Every structure is written in C-alpha cells, then in structure tokens.
Amino acid sequence: MPARVLTTLDELDAVADLWPDEAAGSPAQRFAWVRACAEALADELHVVALEDLRAVAPMARRAGALELLGARDLYEPGDFIYADEEALEELTRELLDLKRPIVVHRTWADSPGEKALRRALRGRGLVFRREAGETPVLHLAPAAVEDRFNSRRRGDIRRARRRAEELGSVSVEVLSPSPGEVGPLLDEIVAVEGAGWKGVRGTALSQDPRRRRFFDEYGSLAAAEKTLRIARLRIGDETAAVQLAVEHAGRLWLLKIGYDERFARCSPGTLLMLEAARWASERGLEAIELLGVREEWTRFWTEEGRRCVSLYAYPAGLGGARSLVAGGLAQGKRRAVRRIVDRAARAQLAGPGLDDALEAARTVGRAVTLGYWDGPGDSPGLVESIALVTLERLAEGGLDAYLSIKPPALGNSPRRIATVLGVAEELGLAVHFDSTGLDEADSSWQLLQALARPSLGCTLPSRWGRSLADAKRAADLGLRVRVVKGQWPDPDYKARDERERFLDIVDAVAEAAHVGIATHDRALAAAAIRRLGRAEHERLLGLPWRGADLGPTRIYVPFGHAYLPYAIARAREHPRLALWVARDVIRGGR
Predict the structure, then answer these.
(1) 435 FRET partner, CA 20 to 30 A, in 49, 158, 283, 339?
(2) Are residues 205 and 263 in the same domain?
(3) Higher pLDDT pick, 174 / 194
(4) Measured between alpha carbons, how far is 195 from 192 in angstroms, rounded to an integer?
(5) Distant-in-sequence, close-in-space partners of 293: CB < 8 Å, separation ≥ 6
(6) CA distance 145 to 555
(7) Residue 371 is inside which H or E element, if any?
(8) Which residues on neighbouring strands pair with residue 431, listed in sequence order?
C-alpha cells in the first residue's frame, strides 16, 4: 500500500482521528506529542504514513536527513508507530525509498524499528547505532514506596519533612487539569523550575522558547485527552516543587521537574517524588518512567533503567554510516585562511576521523587522551555522538585512555554532557573538560560544579588571573586536574613570574587524585612533577620533545578539524613557536 507524506499542520490534523494511538507504547508515539512537536519544533514537517495509517514515521527534514520529530530537541526516546510488524516492515521500506538518511536521535534499544531498518537496507545501505544512555524506571511494588530505602535514607526524608513543616503547612496535590486550566499551571511550573538549578544552568523552559512552546501545545492536547498530570508540593502559601507528567499504558511518564532553591534544605523535590510515587501506586500504576538520563537524584530512587540507542540509516549511494561523522568534519574548510591553518595544524592532528585517532593512539604506544576538535557548523548533537562513539571504541580497544571534551562544542548542555559522563562511568573511563576561551570559563565551571565527580577533570591555565582560585575550587570538588600555561592569555592579568605562578597552581592541587602537567617547557614540567612527587606528564601529539621522559607520559591525540593548538601571537615572545608554525605549514603533517 503506497505511503503519503504530510508536510503541513493541516494535513497532520486531517488524520488525527485515524492516528494509531492504541498502538503507542509511550507518549512520544501518540498524536498529541507528534502534533506539539510539529507545531513547536519542526521547521520542515515530513510525516510518512501508510495510506490506512496502520504505521506512521513522524519525521522532519533537517540538513538533508529525515529526523524523528522531537528526539533531538527533547532528548526523550521516540519511535515509529505501527499496528503490527507487517505494517512496520512496509513503513520502513517506504521511508527508505525516499533516499534520504534516517536519523533517530533516541529510541529504546529493544525497539523493533532497528531490525526493520536493517532488513530493509540489507544490501542497499548501512545502519549505524550508538548507545544513548538509559532512562531510569521506578517500578512500584505493592509495599510502601519508602520501604525500598535503608534506615538512614528514611531518616533523611523524615528530617526534610520536619524542616519543611517548620516553614509552614505542607501539602501535595496531583491534578488532572482541563485544557483551560493548563496555562496558569504551566506558568507556575516554569517559574518554579527557573528558580532552581535549571535556571542557573540556563536549561529552564523560561530560557528556551521553542521547548516552552512545545509544552504549552502538548499540555493542552494531553489535558484534552485526560492524560496530563501536574503534581505540586506547597509549603505554606508557596509552591516549592513541581512535576509535569502524563499517564499512559499503566505508567506515569515524568516529563519535567523543578523546585525552588529557597526551600533546598527541605529537599522538596524528594518529598514531592515520594508523594507522587504513593499516588501512582495507589492508582494501580506499575511504574514511573523518569525519562531523561541517569542523574544523581534518580539513583536515590532506582538503579533500574531502560537502555536507549541512536540510529542512523543510510540508503545506498549516500556513503554509508561513516558519512555521519565525515559530513560534519567536512564543513567549514573553504576559505584560504582556513586552509593554511589546517595545513599548519595537521602535524598535531591525528586526522579527520576517529579511526585516525585510534591508529595514532596505538602507534604512540603510551597512555593517551582523545579529543575531538569541532569545526564550524558542527552541531552539539554531532559532537555528542562522536564523544559517545569515542568512549565505546576506547573501551573496546582496552587502551589506557580518557576523553577530552569542549563544553561549548556540546552547547554547554548539562543534558548532553551528563549523557557523555554517564556512558563514561559505565565504561570505567574519565572525561576531561578542555580549556576554552576565558569568556567561557564561568559556564564551564557552572557545569563542573553541577556535575562534579572523581572521574571528571578540569583544565587550569596558569596565565589566567582566576586560576588559583579555580584550583582550590577543583580540589574542594574532588576533580581531576590538568595544569597548563594556556593558549589564551588573560588581558587583565600578568604574572610577575610565569614559572612561579604555574608552580603555585600545582601546589594548590597537590591533593587531587589525578594531576596532569601539560607544558612543552621541559624544565617547568620537571619542576612541577618533582614538586608533587606524583603526576602525569601530558604532551600534545606532534610537538617536538628532546631529552628523557619525565616519568609517566600521556599523549593528547586530537582528531577532527585542524586548528593551531598554540597562539601565533605568542611566537613574538617565544621564537621557537614561530619555527614550529613554519615547519608545520611546510610539512602539512607529521
């Protein structure tokens, strides 16, 4: 049966009554979700449906590919909708006949959609898959929810409740609002969320008009379906914590949470979650789908999760799965100045692809750090994908390695970075924040503060006035550290003695679990390592080095887009740098 392609909201609305909602395993497959994504998030709607709507692929066109609606912007698992396996097989064939790459940024790992894509592409293309973390799931047992906690945790909850009651009466309600009631309630959710850590991180709905519009649209549609649930905890006359959820398929699906930082001592989010879980259990629901990714707060409630993957399908003639990375790496290399810089920097670059970096890592025969250098036009989603694939390949290869990332390349997104950190922890690997420009330091440190853990590292440039204070901050947070001179100087700071300043920062991180000394100044590196008694020397791939090694040495292996890893302006102070630049321009590689 031929398929039709819906490209306008009117066309989508015309099939609302035929939409196979009864086949939806999650809210993201229902018409209300797809309609809200189409309204708020899709620039070019491209919904592919069998003529009888027994199967639908809710897609949008973006950068020449067809992407599953909402999965990139909301990072919640989605899927095709289908009444049976036969309809799914027919849908995937119709979808691939459009001869465009198919991108599903997040779906359940056990989705039949992947197998259907692979069968449809057998001999006609490739399917690339990567891990996309887990969504935590809280299963509701017949016993009381708090019985899952040990005595210490139960005591913590009782103390939090008492602190809340000292401020005023505590009340919890779970609402099933009508469409007309949704607007004011969503305004309240947005205000509370913005008053908490999401507001500080810049991820609150109040700071994201597109996602806010989605939730406005979806909230009204879900309320009309009588599936919307809004929970709030009030202390006195103030709303201290909120949840936005939908009830579907015997489960409560948690879409948004937030709490007011003024009540942080009372753990209002925990108190509300406990009451929401009691409500769901009494209603006979089997589980709460926490969605998102594993975070510290979700581990308080559950260690169970549903594994997710991302899928990239490439019909024959489009270059196979590697074009996902190659397409991103090929952008932004057109201008003459860029070509010169590319040629100069190629001596420090393993190559454009991950395979180049892994080959270089094996060749150097030492511990390594792998870092992707993004280029103009690389989306945060692409950079995240490359980071996750890099972690998997490092773990598979058994290399002594960790991953370096640049937070701005990931959009400074706590969600994306938390996903990378979660996969790294599962694989037993560390992740390091590379140094960026001074103007981006505050945002990087906000992320470090929020995501601090022993496997996370930061970079301390000794040429920055703020770095001594940051060194003490890193020690307090228990971070790994890398001490560098730094590519970008601080225009408002000039050390009287740059060598002593470097060593002062080394002293400040002496108690850190891991310290890397990354400088091409051999004498300074030796002095720093002697000072600590234990440290790891780090060197950039391709930079010259003479003399004996300084104990354990790790090689930083970058791949991706070439750019000069040292500031040309510094060449006036250190003529040897100018010689390196000239050498690299002439050689264009190692």
Answers:
(1) 339
(2) yes
(3) 174
(4) 5
(5) 75, 133, 134, 135, 415, 418, 419, 422
(6) 49
(7) strand 367-373
(8) 403, 456
Measuring CA to CA, which residue among 525, 524, 518 is closest to residue 541? 518
- Secondary structure (DSSP) of 193-216: HHTSHHHHHT-SGGG-HHHHHHHH
Q: Are residues 347 and 272 in the same domain?
A: no
Rounded distance, CA 22 to CA 16, Å?
Answer: 13
The domain containing residue 416 runs over which residues? 332-587
Mean pLDDT of 221-225: 97
Residue 584 has pLDDT above 80, yes or no: no
pLDDT at residue 246, rounded to an integer: 98
Structure tokens at 210: 């597109």
Q: Quick check: 538 and 556 in contact, CB under 8 A?
A: yes
**38 and 146: one domain?**
no
| pLDDT single digits (tens) 521-568 | 888 999 999 998 888 999 888 776 655 667 788 999 999 876 544 433
Closest CA to 459 of 496, 495, 399, 405: 405
Q: Where are the alpha helices (DSSP H) in 16-142?
A: 31-40, 71-74, 85-96, 112-121
The CATH code of the domain that includes 89 is 3.40.630
Rounded to whole angstroms, the Cα distance separating 437 from 381 reads 21
Number of domains into which the chain is organized = 3
* Helix and strand numbers, DSSP H then E, in the chain: 21, 22
pTM of the entire predicted model: 0.58
What is the per-residue pLDDT for 63? Answer: 81
Could you give the CA distance from residue 265 to residue 321 in angstroms, rounded to a whole number? 49
Please give the average per-residue pLDDT across 481-494, as a whole number: 84
